[in-house]
């Protein structure tokens, strides 16, 4: 399983802060984003290629090509605005 | 190194003193305080700060370690608040302590630039017209990117020498 | 603007708060604290700070006004101590308050670089081997000179825009 | 008359923090430095051309060519080392 977290605008738009999904057929960050976008509606809109979505794998900033492994914690969120 | 995410306010004098006390080689302490602003064209009533608890501490520690390494400074404090804040409230405090002022100033700016683009915090503003998530600013990416160029790598070598 | 030369220590939190309180457009406060250092190769026991009373206030005010003008910041505090100080004691506090961090950081560095070369203070160190007047450092002249180049004049225009 | 002040190392070396001198024949900072150096001993050594001496005229930093007028307050001191 993969542990998926959503923050800020994504959490509110998806009405979801946390879910677990099977890790089969998800090898990279890109695969996960593509799979989630397939859900349609707000999912496809928020994960469209022209919207900036940041991804962290196991609490480290990650890029589209980065590998995802069984048991990983993946977070999706908008560009950060702290400080 | 003292790094904490908290809802409470902080005392700047105590935090600065904690950082330099006991290390007589520290001669230059730079610091930065970020505040909730409210301007005529953006009359903010309140700000709510969300963060990603599992990642925040880790990411701030990694930024602080990078600053210690790059600028050869001696110690760093980062305090970032979360939760409900109003205009005039303090959001973040960064303190850098070193032997000389140039390295302390650079390290402090570096930490703020990295924090603004890499640390998982998000601001939601409430104004008279409703509430919305603050958009990330292009200028923060620009500020961040300058630390990666060759000029800055040379600078790192200078401080290490 | 709050500029004072005094023998007493200061509370950094109170000074920072005084500067931003009541101006909700201030979002970024940078500050610098200079301390009496004592290193293994220079075991200072004490420092005596002399100044030129008639000129000090005037020169600090002129530096502060130049920073307000160049970087379009909103307020400045400079507190410089004189008299007898020991390692770990604070010598100087500079605080700059503006809308955004880049201008506050630059203004704070600018003031320190000007102060180091233009404000009439002199340090006399007492160490186990006797006492002597501290020599001015070449690197302070270098730091000072960078604010005069064309690059910095462009920067001034940017902030004014 | 001119009011002349000395600070830091110069004050100690000259054993003098303050004096008044007639302003006749002193038109510039250079004239004053030359006249003082004529006193010989520590005066000529401290005011030799290879030693850095800073001058303020009426509490403003001044240069060798700057004009001095009757009643001015002139301060001589080493390069500053505050902050």
Write a concise keyword list for the protein shown above:
heterotetramer, A: 83 residues, Ubiquitin-like (UB roll), 5 strands, globular, B: 161 residues, alpha+beta, Aldehyde Oxidoreductase, domain 3, four-stranded mixed beta sheet, four-stranded antiparallel beta sheet, 5 helices
User: What is the N-to-C succession of helices and strands of chain A?
Assistant: EHEHHEEE
Q: How many separate helices of chain A?
A: 3
Quick one: which chains have the greatest interface?
B-C, 34 and 34 residues
Number of helices of chain B: 5
Give the averaged pLDDT of chain A, no decimals.
96
What would you call the structural class of chain B? alpha+beta
Mean pLDDT of chain B: 92
Give the % helix of chain B.
Answer: 40-55%
Q: What is the top-level CATH class of chain A? A: Alpha Beta
Number of domains in the coordinates of chain B? Answer: 1
Tell me the overall shape of chain B. globular
Listing every helix as H and every strand as E from the N terminus to the C terminus, the arrangement of chain B reads: EHEEHEEEHEEHH
Oligomeric state of the chains? heterotetramer
- Integer count of domains of chain A: 1
CATH topology (fold) name of chain B: Aldehyde Oxidoreductase, domain 3
Count of strand segments of chain B: 8
């Amino acid at each position: 399983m993969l542990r998926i977290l959503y923050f800020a605008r994504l959490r509110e738009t998806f009405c979801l802060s946390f879910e677990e999904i099977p890790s089969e057929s998800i090898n990279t960050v890109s695969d996960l984003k593509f799979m989630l976008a397939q859900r349609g509606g707000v999912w496809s809109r928020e994960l469209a290629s022209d919207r900036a979505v940041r991804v962290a794998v196991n609490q480290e900033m990650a890029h589209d090509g980065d590998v995802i492994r069984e048991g990983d914690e993946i977070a999706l969120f908008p560009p950060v605005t702290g400080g | 190194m003292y790094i904490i995410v908290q809802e409470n306010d902080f005392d700047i004098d105590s935090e600065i003193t904690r950082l330099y006390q006991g290390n007589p080689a520290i001669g230059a302490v730079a610091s930065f305080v970020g505040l909730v602003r409210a301007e005529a064209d953006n009359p903010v009533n309140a700000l709510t700060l969300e963060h990603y608890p599992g990642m925040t501490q880790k990411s701030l520690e990694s930024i602080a370690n990078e600053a210690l390494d790059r600028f050869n400074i001696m110690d760093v404090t980062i305090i970032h608040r979360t939760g409900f804040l109003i205009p005039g409230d303090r959001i973040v405090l960064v303190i850098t302590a070193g032997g000389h002022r140039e390295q302390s100033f650079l390290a402090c700016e570096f930490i703020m630039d990295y924090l603004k683009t890499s640390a998982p915090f998000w601001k939601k503003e409430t104004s008279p017209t409703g509430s919305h998530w603050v958009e990330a600013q292009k200028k923060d990416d620009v500020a961040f990117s300058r630390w990666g160029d060759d000029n800055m790598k040379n600078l790192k070598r200078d401080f290490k020498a």
